[in-house]
Amino acid sequence: xxxxxxxxxxxxxxxxxxxxxxxxxxxxxxxxxxxxxxxxxxxxxxxxxxxxxxxxxxxxxxxxxxxxxxxxxxxxxxxxxxxxxxxxxxxxxxxxxxxxxxxxxxxxxxxxxxxxxxxxxxxxxxxxxxxxxxxxxxxxxxxxxxxxxxxxxxxxxxxxxxxxxxxxxxxxxxxxxxxxxxx
Length: 183
Fold this sequence. Notes:
This protein is an alpha/beta fold. The protein has helices spanning 14-26, 55-58, 74-80, 82-93, 105-111, 156-168, 170-177; strands at residues 3-8, 30-35, 41-42, 48-49, 53-54, 65-68, 97-101, 118-119, 135-136, 141-144, 147-150.
């Protein structure tokens, strides 16, 4: 069974975080949520989440994917945390999947790990960064090799279903998607 790390930072976009967690768990993927700091995580719209573990407790564990929820200032907190960058670099070096939605692709751009790859992000989220080494597509969900990115809260379900398909295949995605009653 694939194992996915979802780091939760204060100010993360709760719609994205919860959608990713929920859909991946529906697919029976082993999801581990980890907070950057002790205590509840206060999201961008006031929702409070409790992570499974602290990031320090799982930093050396093996994962098949890391999926970064966006939102501000959550994505900025992820980008400022050297532990997140070490995890991303380790997973990318091991040819594992790195995923980010909304403003969180800024972590991949700032890190340089996605140089030479296609990405998408929330409009304007990357404006302050040098994006000359990546190709921004504007697609709702972009898959380029081991990098999966998406635009924002409205694409969270498509993004999460793509993560399932990437890890388990189209049949698993279809099995999770069917009871959701999407149009």
